[in-house]
Give the backbone structure.
Amino acid sequence: MERLVSLCKRRGFVFQSSEIYGGLNSCYDYGPLGIELKNNIKNCWWRSMTYHHENIEGVDASILMHPRVWEASGHVAGFTDPLVDCKKCKQRYRPDQIDTPVCPNCGGELTEPRMFNLMFKTFMGPVENQTAVVYLRPETAQGIFVNFLNVMTASRQKLPFGIAQIGKAFRNEITPGNFIFRTREFEQMEMQFFVRPGEDSEWFEKWREERMQWHQSIGIRAEKLRWHEHGPGELAHYAKAAFDIQYEFPFGWQEIEGIHNRTDFDLGRHQEYSGKRLAYFDEARKEHYVPYVIETSVGCDRTLLTVLVDAYHEEQAGDETRVVMRFSPRIAPFKAAVLPLVRKDGLPEYAKNIARDLMRSFRVFYDDVASVGKRYRRMDEVGTPYCITVDGQTLQDGTVTVRERDSMQQERVASSELRGWIDERVRYD
Ligand code: GAP
């Protein structure tokens, strides 16, 4: 993890937030390569949901919502973790995460556990009193539930159908940590699939299968993924069944995605709290019912960490160690680098033209500084799948060499065909 965190900073994937002020605990910023990687992950998710399913629509709900939403959802009453304070050094812990009856930091006496609500509060308008309290959403899901009728009416969808959303969520976690694994501000990619009660278990299984496939479709190794089924003591208040997809991180097997059968809990509660009818009229059966919901919920930042961990490889190449990020070409920040073999004989000009042409379709990187071997290594370290080298032969026959990152094999490709050649390999379809 240490080497990965250092690479992330050095090469511009992830920075500590407000670093010049000493950093803000558990908050991170994405640098030039991090944001490319993140956008690519989000794109693959978005495409897999909305482009590949004619019955899934997208929304982008606001982060601030009516405070009653969080009463209806159960978050005001129940989105809590137990917390103990050290009476001496004032450190705070979740009692289930420490194994001593005293403070692990100073040995001081601990207070009795009390429940701590994880929602961030703020005030709406100029008056900071209880009636002005609003929350930063702790999950994106509720923005979907409250828009169920709007989306269904506007898109003329019929059950079964889904609503997908990517957006920020905030939780005042007591023990954030492991780099970007658990932070207080993060992004979720959630999809709520509305079905007829009685068909929920079948859809639950379908979505489980599809979501496991998705992680592999962005290049995560299958052997590092597994299922974890929630036992009765673990199930959230709204869930009838829940499975997590876990990944084997250097710090152990941990959840990256949750798939939940949320029943009619959410729509039922919003119906009750808002007074608006959220039932669906099934024309074929001539009956009204509140749909059941199958939810797929994955952290974007956590997926990004998974992808970074999974891609990181150190290997011996001759007498040096090659660090290579084996990102799937679908999500790699740069799809290709364009390198003139030498900085003379018109090669840089030719290479720049190729780069300029490819840039209109893909994120590519032009580099003519240092030996070509060094330039390859720099691209390996940020996971660029293809290095295109312009050499003497290019000027004669218009072909370039394309070096593949993992195998280091080279092949000659006509420069006029490069765009299609790359597109075929990086497209998510
Ligand atoms: N709507 C259901 C829901 O929010 P969750 O299991 O609490 O379920 C879903 O969260 C996913 O969101 C997790 O699997 C994880 O990937 C991500 N996530 C949750 N809390 C997080 C945090 N503090 N930092 C980063 N990602 C988090």
